[in-house]
Each structure stands twice: as C-alpha cells, then as structure tokens.
Amino acid sequence: MVRLLLSGLLVFFLGIPELTWAASTGSESRLDLTQHTVGYFALLIFICAYVLVVLEEYTHLRKSKPVILAAGLIWIGIALAYGGGSDLPAQAARHNLLDYAELFLFLLVAMTYVNALEERRIFDALRSWLLHKGFNLRQIFWLTGVMAFFISPIADNMTTALLMCAVILAVGRDNHAFIAVSCINIVIAANAGGAFSPFGDITTLMVWQKGVVEFWEFFALFIPSVLNWFIPALIMSFTVPQSAPQTIDSRPVPVKRGAFAILALFIFTIALAVTFHNSLHLPPVLGMFTGLALLQLYGYYLKKTYHQARNRGYVDPFESVMSQAHTHTKAGFDIFDKIARSEWDTLLFFYGVVMCVGGLGFIGYLELASNLLYGQLGATYANIAIGLLSSVVDNIPVMFAVLTMNPDMPVGQWLLVTLTAGVGGSLLSIGSAAGVALMGQARGHYTFMSHLKWTPVIALGYFGSIGAHMLINRSLF
C-alpha cells in the first residue's frame, strides 16, 4: 500500500511539465522546479502554513506546528522529483539542518540565561523599582521606552516587551489611552534596540553567524536605531499626561541569591561567543555552550550551599511558600528547569522556517526573487521593501531568504537590510513577536487598530532611521 502511494505521488509530481536543468554544480546538476508541479505544490503548502501562523491569535494553533509539517511535505516533494536516485536533496537538507542547529543551540543557551535571571527575580526587582520611585505617567512612558531599548540587545525583544508592559499595566490600571500608547512605544523601542546588536534579535544573530557583517560593525546602526524609536516616541509622548499614577501598594521585590553573579556570567558568555568567533575563528555557539557550562557549575554551587545560606540567615519567602505548597519543589537552583522553560515553540518554528525556505531556495524560487528584487529594483529599494514586508510576514523567514539568496552587497547594504528587517515589524502590531505578545498581555487596551492609528508616525521613524544610516554610514556603501 505504501509503495503504491509513493508511486502515485511520484507520477503526480513528475507528470507536468517537463523538468529543465539548472547550471551544473559538479558531478550532478540541480533541477529547476520553479515551473514544475513540485514547485507549485511547495509554494501552496508554504502559503497555507504561513496563513495559519498569521492566524495563531485566533486559532490558538501554535505557529511551529504548520511550518514543521510544511517543511516535511516540501522536502518529500523535492525527493520524489529527483526520483530517489540523487544525493543533491539530502546534501541541501543537511546544509540547512546545520545552519539551524548552530542557531538553535545558540538561542537555547541565551534563553536559558534569560530564564535563570527571571527565576532569580532580576526582572521583578527592576519592575518593582520602577513602580516605587514615584514617577509620573509621562516619565514612566519614557523610562519604559529607554529600558526596553537597552535591555532588548541582551534579552530578546519579546521578553523585554513583556517586562515593560507589566509595569505599564500596574501603573495604568484603567487608563486605556496611556496603556495603548505606552505599549506601542515599548514595541518600537524593543525592536529598535534589538537591531543594532548581534544578540538583540534572531535576524541579527543570523546575519552575524553567516559572516556577512562583523560583530562590531552592527553598532554602526546604534544612532539609526535610536532615531527609529525616538521620533515616534517624541510625538506620542505629547498625548501622555504628566499626572501621577494611582497608588501602588505592592511591596519591593528583592532578588534571589546569586542573581547578579548570573548576570555577570551572561555578559561573560556573550564575550566568549564573540571571542570564539572573531579571535579563534570557531562557531560562536561553542563559546555560548562554554558559558552554559559555567552557569551549570554555578547552579551546582547554589544548590549545594542552599541550606548553608539559610542557616546564615538567608530566607526567600516566596520559595518557602512554594516549598510548603509543593513538597516536590527543588531547593536552590535547577539548571535543567531553566532549559526546559525555553521558548520551544519559537525554536521549533525556526526549524520549520529554515527548512521551508531552504526547500524553496533549492527549488529555485529564491534565485528568481533575488533577480527581481536586487537585479531590477536595486539593493537599496529592495532592502527597504524587505523591511516593509516584515511588518506583515515574520522577519525570520524574510531574513533567512535574503541570506539564502546571498546577493552581492557592501556591508552598508547588509546593515540596511538588518535594520529594516528588525524595525519594519514595528509598523504593525502583528509584525513582531513583541507586538503579538503585548496584544495578548494587554488585551482590550493594546489592539491591532490602536497600533494602526500610529503607523504613519512610526513610518517617520522607519524612514528617518534609513536616512540616518545612509548618511552616517555612507562610507560602508
């Protein structure tokens, strides 16, 4: 039965039209499947999967599920088109898997550190400090924006946005207008802050690991990124009153033992990744995993000295309550719990995207897109258009597609597409993970329409940052 089904699929995929051969790549030649049934099938599958990704908020179907299935179906079609007698599809699939594995492991370590800092209550303490300083609403609007901008280069933009949004919700209470405009400000700031750092967003990380932009060259985008956030923030701030927020009756939150040591280890781990890449010419993921080992050893120390610390007077009231309610709660610090709480849906979604886009590239569609965008429009207009596209389509597949096309561009153009893909998602609430996350957290206050109302103002920041980059960094073009 299985053989009969595979035979039927093979006949379907090879039926129409005739295959043409791409340029020779060695002993074998790659098939041009762009006008073949397999190509049309792959495009249809990818579009259907991505529609489900866009509708995740309404269907509650995790975004990783449709793209993983689409990836499998696309590569089945490719394998059947080659009739099972060629090694080219397997070689291409393994190449894409290697790209994914390096990024997956890198992100896994970064997420583990962020989860460890969250568990040690670094972020809770920061939020508590903001709430108890007596700032007025306009000052909180600016402070949350500034902090989102400078935290997102280290933590991911979604975690940063959720942290700052928690402050806004606690301060704003029932002030609908303040919460809405502050959430927009946070989304813009978090996305802009992630654009000038190799660690600020998955897209910048992909560009760095690909080797087209060196680590320190990303910081040439700092001033354009600041302008991308500051221009719309300045205009929106005039709508925020300078009145005092309602009284906050929550208590200050202390950090747990070892919180600042873990923060220092995280910074050191980032330095290790940079050193491995720039000085030793090794994959940066090796540096990240070396840093993970240091976190594991420090976690072991925290766990072994937990009871000694309690005997010396250290008491964590929250942990005591949890231990009484759940007798199975582990005392001290459990590193594998931090790994388990990583954003697995995001990591698996990334797998599906890499394999889907890799399959479409192997079929030949990315070469066609590259010729259309970079051959006819030119690099500058193409990179600006890619940023606009990322406001509708997630910037991860967009950037991976550009890296797969690998157009011949100077560093200035690679920085331009890094900037636009990173901040273009701020134009719409659905354009970035930060925006989607805040629509759920501030449900009823921050919506697609409340964000859309400010899109023309956000666009001023978008094009202002592009102009600033082309002026300040013109020597890189």
From TrEMBL:
Q: Which residues cross the membrane?
A: 38-55, 67-85, 137-155, 215-238, 259-276, 282-302, 348-366, 378-402, 414-434, 454-472
According to the entry, every stretch annotated as the Citrate transporter-like domain falls at: 50-422
Name under which the protein is recorded: Na+/H+ antiporter, NhaD family
An example of a Gene Ontology cellular component annotation for this protein is:
membrane
**Annotated organism of origin:** Thiothrix eikelboomii
Q: Which InterPro entries did the record assign?
A: Cit_transptr-like_dom, NhaD-like
Q: Where in the cell is it found?
A: Membrane
Q: Does the keyword Membrane apply?
A: yes
Which family does the entry's similarity section mention?
A: Belongs to the NhaD Na(+)/H(+) (TC 2.A.62) antiporter family.
The processes (GO biological process) annotated in the record are: sodium ion transport
Tell me which UniProt keywords the record has, alphabetically: Antiport, Ion transport, Membrane, Sodium, Sodium transport, Transmembrane, Transmembrane helix, Transport
Its chief place of residence is membrane
Molecular function as annotated in GO: antiporter activity
What membrane topology is annotated for this entry? Multi-pass membrane protein
Pfam families to which the protein is assigned, alphabetical: CitMHS (PF03600)
